[in-house]
Design brief:
The chain is mainly α and 221 residues long. It is built from 11 helices and no strands.
Length: 221
Amino acid sequence: MEQQSTAAETAASPKARIKQAYLDYVLRKGTPPISVFKLTQKLGIAEQEFYRYYATFEVIDREIWADFGREARTTAAAEPVWEQYGSREKLLGFYYTLLEILKRNRSYALQSLRRSLHRMPGLSPRVLDDFRQEFEAFVAEILRDGRRTEEVATRPLVQNQYPRAFWQQMLFVLGFFAKDDSLDFERTDAAVEKAVTLSFDLVGRNSLDSAVDFVRFLVRR
């Protein structure tokens, strides 16, 4: 086993080794290393080798969270029924897939979330910057599809702000996940369904849209 592990480590790229060593340290200690030197010394590489790939430990954290989001989107989109899903089902599929990934990586995810959310209560933690940008682009795309199928109402004055609003929903879900002590995070699953249902009730056509259409009709006459 030790020989196999060493062979796999040798085959890994320096960047991958650094990221894995950082992740292992956080999982064991519950906190990032106190310095880059300490981590590179343990890896047996020069300190400048670290800086060829990462400026700080925070950059590694951002990359790990971006990886979670990319894996969730890729995995959800690989489902045979994905193309038949509407916008609401696609967002739900993404959320549930992401939660499964976070459950597999729960020790790191919970430590990282609790550390970040505690440091910046009510704000988007910087550790989620890359994750946020890609999530908002994903939401914008599925909402555009929703407008084409009329699942999402066309509201030119506000619709460009929807991705930011859905990001606040994501922060709610992650915060709920970080505090959830139910078995297998069952309450988080329920919170996701209710949050997504509410958001699509709000962005879908409703009585306000009908009233606006009626006023437009009267004005044109």
